[in-house]
Amino acid sequence: MASRSRAGKGILVERRTGRRVGDCAGAAIATAPKALVRVLFFRTWVMPMTIVSPRSSRGTGPAANAAAVRRGTGALFRAGRHQKSLEFGLLILAIALAAGVIWGVVRLVSAPIEQSGLAGTPTTTLPDFEGRIAKIHRTVQMRAGGELAWSGADVGRAVHTEDAIQTLAEASVVVKVKNRGDISIGENSLVVFEANENDTFMATRAAVASVAHGVLTGRLKAGADNDVLGIRLPNATVRLQGASPGQAADFNLQVNRDKSASIVILRGKAQVRARNGVTKLGSGEGIQISADGGRAERQSIPAVPVLVEPVANQIIVYHKDPPKVLFRWQSDTPVDDYHFVLAKDRDLRDSLADERLSNGYTRADLRTGDYYWRVTARRGWLEGAPTPVALVHVERDIDGRVRDALTELYQQSDAARTLVAKAKGVLVFPHVIKGGLILGGEYGEGALMSGGSVVSYYTMKLASLGLQIGAQRRKVVLLFMTSEAYDGFLKSRAWKVGVDGSVTVAGSGTGKGIDASTAQKPIVGFVFSNEGLMFNLTLEGSKISRMPD
């Protein structure tokens, strides 16, 4: 503020007084250091007085004195404006520093509040995904993170963050997740393994898999710390864990053809985050998320069906043509349909049928072998818990006689059991008939086995001219001791003893011993009856042919 007054005769005094700038911003910087406040804000600035005396003026008289006053006043105003610009800059700097201090204090105070409001969902950055391929069925491709090209997946290959696995039709793969459990990826699926990216919905140390499409099932193994497995779907995020520490979790997730997602918790618990919120699921519950992320209502999954026939471990015997096998089951609760799987292995990977059915299933082409089947009930897209995998064994009537013939051979020769265990292939004819009135000959039907399983069926024929009275029953066993001998036999549909391969017939008077030289032959034969091993015999000229399938 400027004022003018006279201070004595002939003297004109002009005073310009500043003001306390800190009074305007003191409240905003209450938390700033006191020294900084004193230096920047609470220092009063007072413009110096300028006294203009007639004696010091160059001019004389009032006019000259007035001009000098005007020049001095202009200089004073220019100096004041420069001082205020500097003061305003310092004010802006101080306000910015004070805002930074206030923000830091607020973050320190509010952090515990945020953590307590997100119980069970810590914000710790989570580790990368770590796993390894345990099983592969049919065509499975894998792409390493950061690469564009796909390559064939191999058992034992490591799986890391950003790696992707894709299965084709009727293919599947099992990935063992480090310290978590197993994940099974079904056919026509695409799964990308990723880091958690500090998603507070997940939990510390959670492994994360992202399912673009297809089926993902698995088991989260029991752990003392109740670890979490995270699954990202196109329209939802799922957090899986055991119902309590020390308990496992089984789940089934599927991205359906209509882009919706089905989530079923067979055992354990889960939280499902969709567009409309978070839903908690317990054991035996499921939920379906629509394609746009809308949340469906939680519902119980269908009950486990009851298998009716064939009964578990049933043996079905046929003569030549495979039998018709009827698979039946029933359910006590309303369902839409059933998911039926029939396979050649207990893991149901090598499937013969994988269908949605409303009732039973009939198969008329099951030849000798073990078959495994399972049924699950479905309601909409939700699929319940499966039945236990049941076994049915189908065999020709000759298969039982083959097993009986081998048992009889073991009883007559201790060395034969050892040789059979070492053989690459075992051809057994349990019932060979020799003899006739006019045309002598021999004929028998048998089975070729490898690794304890039937490979194919064969006939054995030997025709000879001459009069032979009576008939003689015997059993013939051929052991292919080397890979070369076995492979050569498999390649021929009609194999003749003495032409395609030589057979050394083992036998002794006591029926118990086999000499060392015989045991070293590529093909060793045993001929025996109920009375014991027969020796001094030959199989030369016998023709062995594979029976049509």
Key features of this structure:
549 residues, alpha+beta, Jelly Rolls, Immunoglobulin-like, 17-stranded mixed beta sheet, 9-stranded mixed beta sheet, 38 strands, elongated, disordered N terminus
Amount of helix: 10-25%
- In total, the number of strands is 38
Summarize the main sheet. Answer: 17 strands, mixed
Q: Look at the helices and sheets and give the structural class.
A: alpha+beta
From the spread of the alpha carbons, the general shape counts as elongated
Number of helices: 7
CATH class of the largest domain: Mainly Beta
Low-confidence stretches: 1-59, 110-126, 465-470
Number of domains: 4
Ordered list of secondary-structure elements with their pairings:
Blueprint: E1 2-6, E2 12-16, H1 22-25, H2 34-40, E3 50-52, H3 61-117, E4 130-137, E5 140-143, E6 151-152, E7 158-160, E8 164-167, E9 172-177, E10 181-185, E11 190-194, E12 207-220, E13 229-233, E14 236-241, E15 249-255, E16 261-267, E17 269-274, E18 277-281, E19 285-289, E20 299-300, E21 306-309, E22 314-318, E23 325-330, E24 337-343, E25 351-357, E26 361-363, E27 369-379, E28 382-383, E29 390-396, H4 397-412, H5 414-422, E30 425-436, E31 439-450, E32 453-465, E33 468-480, H6 483-490, E34 494-496, E35 504-506, H7 516-519, E36 523-529, E37 532-533, E38 543-546
Parallel strand pairs: 12-13, 22-29, 35-36
Antiparallel strand pairs: 1-2, 2-3, 4-7, 4-9, 5-6, 5-8, 8-11, 9-10, 10-12, 11-12, 12-15, 13-14, 14-17, 15-16, 16-19, 17-18, 19-20, 21-23, 23-26, 24-25, 24-27, 27-28, 27-29, 30-31, 30-33, 31-32, 32-38, 33-36, 34-38, 36-37
Helix pairs in contact: 4-5
